[in-house]
Amino acid sequence: MAGRPQCQIAIRGLCETVKPRVHHWWKDSHRTFSSSICRPKSQQKPRRVTEDSYAYHHSQQRKEANVARQTQLREERSTGIGDPIRGVPTPFVESLGSALPPVTTTSDEELANATPSLSPERPPPSPAFAADENHLNYYITKPEIEGSLDYSRVLSEPLVSVERERADPVKEAEEAKAHEAGHNTAYEAISRIVSLGNANNKERTRANIQRIIDTFGRHNTDSQLKPKAPSLQSTYSTIAELTPTPRAGPDTGSSEVQIGILTAKIRVLADRYEGPNRNDKVNKRNLRLLLHRRQKLLKYMHKKERGSQRWTHMIEKLGLTEATWKGQIAVE
Q1: pTM of the model
Q2: Based on CB atoms within 10 Å of each CB, which residue in 101, 147, 161, 189 is the most buried?
Q3: Buried b (16+ CB within 10 A) or exposed e, 109-135
Q4: Mean pLDDT for the chain?
Q5: Rg (CA), the chain
Q6: Residues 92/317, Cβ–Cβ less than 8 Å
Q7: Contact 305, 259 (CB under 8 A)
Q8: Is the dihedral of CA 125, 127, 128, 130 positive or negative?
Q9: Is pLDDT above 90 for 292?
Q10: Is the dihedral of CA 146, 148, 150, 156 positive or negative?
């Protein structure tokens, strides 16, 4: 009995020192989970150590050469395909900037022979060859200007005195010379006014559209370019071919004409976007819409007229490449 109270006291003290574990459900629910198994360093896979340094450096050189070759091939491929926005520069496309016909003469002799027939006292208009342009500003043609200037020259001629005895030949010669100089000045001024080189962007676009209609319109190209050869399916078909409706005016709706007009408009928007107006989001969206519209027409034209003279004529004139109708076109 004497040892029993001491045992009870010892057990009671042990129970008081050991506290029971309290379970908290919010701590267990937010424990982090790891799918990897933690292994000691002795069981981890050792890193690969290159035993032969020569072989390692040789493999690195081959890798660098392969990457450089891939980069070079990618650049050559992109250069060969061309720019999806502008394509390849051609004389016809470059002439759209000034709306003037491309100059085909290169040597000084040919350039001198191609100079307009002007009198020695009449200076050439500015820009050069403005009098020989087929497409002038303000819907004016060259015969109309020449007729009007000749009529004004006749009306403004100085009067000749009837009484030749009292007439002064020196004074008449001076008046005729002054009249000729005034006519030359008026001719130069009118040539500068109606020249497309001094026109605004809107008038140049209108003139470019008219040039494109005259160049690619089928009312002119049908007599010069051969159509695509019929396919075997259409040759052996029993369905009678429909008689084409005769044209009632210039061709403005064919695919090549619409592609040419879109190319002229794309060039204007691209010049504005690539210049100081880099942050112009509205023109960027308009440029993207025109590019995709031209891409659809080119795909249709490539499907229907591939290999024909119409397709070749359009591609060579406008400088369009596969990048303009194949793949994705992005405006950055």
Answers
A1: 0.64
A2: 101
A3: eeeeeeeeeeeeebeebeebbbbebeb
A4: 78
A5: 42
A6: yes
A7: no
A8: negative
A9: yes
A10: negative
